Structures
1.
Amino acid sequence: MPSEIITECSKLIAQKGWNIAFAESASAGRLSAESSLTPNSGDILRGGIVCYEVFVKEQILKVPHYLIKEFTPESMQVTQVLAQQAAHFFNSKITVAITGLTTAGGSETKEKPVGTIFLYIITPVGNISHQEVFSGNPEEIVLKAADLAAALITKKISE
């Protein structure tokens, strides 16, 4: 069952006659799945791509290697390119890209601990760049990020 904020966000997107697509690394498709469970999913969900591994980011979504090397796969710079490429790929009105660290073993540092999530969201009324650190197990982090993405979209397209 998707959260109330995801259901409300989907309803608002449907009311505007828009659609949504996802480029998901850290969440591995969970944001798309949550969206697919809303009553408006058939009206709004365009699709999604899981780009968990660097190979997919570079080879399919065409993130330049130098960005990954300079900023790491889990960075705002990479997340922004993922959103831009997915928006083009899916021809979507709203595109959400997410990268981050839900478990140890990635590019975590003292400044970027496990739980760090990067969201870059493209909407017809402006783009959103947001970074936040969540606590919890990997699923809790991903679900909190999904709710945050929905809240950010709802706020932006309601302005």
Note: The chain has a mean pLDDT of 97.
2.
Amino acid sequence: MTSVKEFRIEEPATAEELGHGVFEFTDDYSVFDWGKMPDPIPDKGASLCTMGAFNFELLANESIRTHYRGVLPADGGKPVGLDVVDEPPTEMAIALSQRPDLPREGTDYDYDVYHEAAGENYVVPLEIVFRNSVPIGSSLRSRTDPADHGLDFETWPDEPVDLDDPIVEFSTKYEESDRYLDRTEADAIAGKAPIEDLDGLAREVNDLVTRWAATQGFAHEDGKIEVVYHQGNLLVADVVGTFDENRFAYDGQQLSKEVLRQYHKRTQPKWVEAVDVAKTEAKAQGVADWKGLCDAAPAPLDDDVLQVARDMYAAGANAYVGEQFFDAPSIEDAVAAIRDL
């Protein structure tokens, strides 16, 4: 399904009805849309599965619909709640929707064909992004000016910027390179799912994750949701509130995949630059496969860096859910190690 998460189909979805499937979380990671990077990060998959399940259960307690059906115990069996498993899960049972083909010619995608096949049951081909702040590394800094959001800065400062009201944006989900959309285009791409309802659902999820994170000492900076449209209902899909989908901070230190992005920018700048050049060239040529134009590849990470990354995911998951699912340092020690990278 993605470079870091696979899924298996147990009962296919139809044009009218949801199916059943399972997410299989791996220890792989991806930055800069590269896909699978050279090294796995131990316990990363279990950390994401644990945090994702915890957040889906928070949403269920607030009567927010999701595609979550439980986690699978290590010894097999039916899906259960996170409180039932004895060790961190790596598989999550979900309700499956349709994901029709999205034809393209160059960089032009035919969403009409997608929705003709979608019926009343489909994955909305958008990512809905919410922002409570503008941290270092946020794409908002390169795409917009502070004044666009009512902020009293001429240029973006070198530190994170808190927002009085969350910003909600829409980007493509299934295109070769993600692009941000205005509301009119996002509404057209969403099909039968009303753009106002997608906006409202994102704000509900954001508010709940933000409030919970604060009780555990985390600041929730930004994140995203993906959504299934089924028979007039919207279901929160994919995974919610993990260190891959969202940015969190603890004691002023960012805890998310952004740590790995920034580390690569500092230590492998030639590869990061080659990625940017390839994406720019692909756009100029009107082709979608930018990786075929990239003349560099990422190098493996040192073992000590992988250990810091592992502890970020594992210690962060322990602190976020409030239970010791993983044998990991304290969140304070994990944060200190990240600062020393």
Note: The chain has nine helices and 14 strands.
